[in-house]
Amino acid sequence: MLKQLTEDMKTAMKAGDKLRLSCIRMLRAAIKDKEIELGHGLDETEAMAVLAKLVKQRTDAASQYADAGRDDLKDKELAEVEIIQAYLPEPLSDDELDAIVDQAISQTGATGMRDMGKVMAIVKDRAAGRADMGKLSGIVKARLA
What we know:
By secondary structure, this protein is mainly α. The protein contains 7 helices and no strands.
């Protein structure tokens, strides 16, 4: 992923696209910071988790800027979200999420809320980087309740 980011950074420099360039630099820095924190190079799943976290941060910031009436800053944050999402895999559809949850429940033999941890462990592995874990948690709770 770092190679792709480096190539895209060069392209953005040549094109004079300042927003894309600053966003890619921020992505590279976030990935490097995580590598230093963990003490090893990131695999694809770990890198996707970093990017998903950045998307969530930008989305939350855009919401706060909108509430404060700062449309200029909101638009910048949303533009960065679009750039970051280009590096993330296609999110899973609701039907795919339902299928993953159903498989995890049947695989673990979960019968109630006390089994939620087992189900979520399997669901997290299968949907890593391709779904909002909060949304998945809600689906699992609804099924186990």
